[in-house]
């Protein structure tokens, strides 16, 4: 029963936060900002488009495709999994698992990995989509599993990390953590290296464990819960962790964004922020889509804001992504916005999916890939 109540609280909280523009102080909910006109400086050209089943479905899923070499792998909420040629959109293989997928897609070392709402982890052969193994974990999986070729690491909704044998799915270890009383519906996807598994937790902490045995190596608090109500004290790390070189970039809801040293967890820099979507990094700057819809560019050397664009207030933004000289971000009406990395001004906009864009855009080469909530997957270039 506790798990059911927790799920309901999390789902309701996610909906309330998105609808209210994530302001706990507002007595009256404000509507999403209307889009402002601007003179386009660049145009996005659709190279190809494909439909991937039912997309994100009716629940607040965050199913993000994954790119490896010339393939892009995507899954929908009903268990449809596809391998597409990322250059032309041709279908390489398609598999229907007939199961409720809630964590997707993890790719690496010959495996395509998914998690389900019932706590199953499924590993497919990346070459043909055949199921290689299934494993059971203790709770629903809301983020894609990660794999270093030896161990598959899964993060569950209740803040546990589970290490599975990459060849068989047999459990090797489990790392237990006590979750926050009230959380957003979602978890950040774990990251893995040859010797570490790193995860962001609902308590505002980042933990790194030895990937061979699950023993903690370091733990760092990014956000400190504040306020008198449980709602005010929510500090989930739900946005994807980003690793660039030896720096781990992370953001929390109602907390901070920070750069951490990968090996020690030491805080290299930090800045107040509130984001459930995550950050992007490029050219010495970090870009964050705030929970209230403001997009910021931050100098990671000085932690000062280089620019701030508040014209997308309360538009339920996706995580940002660096694309060429621009920052790309999606919104609840299905628009993909391009902002200048220099000053944050709008330079381009394209309507992709009327059901909205929740998943982080992906970039490979000269293409940006956008997965809409309805299941529309598009590849675009700048013309």
TrEMBL record:
Asked if Membrane is a keyword of the record, the answer is: yes
> What InterPro entries does the record tag this protein with?
BamB, PQQ_b-propeller_rpt, PQQ_rpt_dom, Quinoprotein_ADH-like_sf, WD40/YVTN_repeat-like_dom_sf
Q: How does the record say this protein sits in the membrane?
A: Lipid-anchor
List, alphabetically, the GO terms of the cellular component aspect. cell outer membrane
Q: Which residues form the Pyrrolo-quinoline quinone repeat domain?
A: 79-309
Supply the alphabetized keyword list.
Cell outer membrane, Lipoprotein, Membrane, Palmitate, Signal
Location of the protein in the cell:
Cell outer membrane
Q: Which GO terms describe its biological process?
A: Gram-negative-bacterium-type cell outer membrane assembly; protein insertion into membrane
Checking SMART domains in the record gives: PQQ (SM00564)
Similarity comment: family membership: Belongs to the BamB family.
**What is the purpose of this protein?**
Part of the outer membrane protein assembly complex, which is involved in assembly and insertion of beta-barrel proteins into the outer membrane.
Assembly information from the UniProt record: Part of the Bam complex.
Official protein name in the record: Outer membrane protein assembly factor BamB
Protein species of origin: Pseudomonas eucalypticola
What phylogenetic lineage does the species belong to?
Answer: Bacteria, Pseudomonadati, Pseudomonadota, Gammaproteobacteria, Pseudomonadales
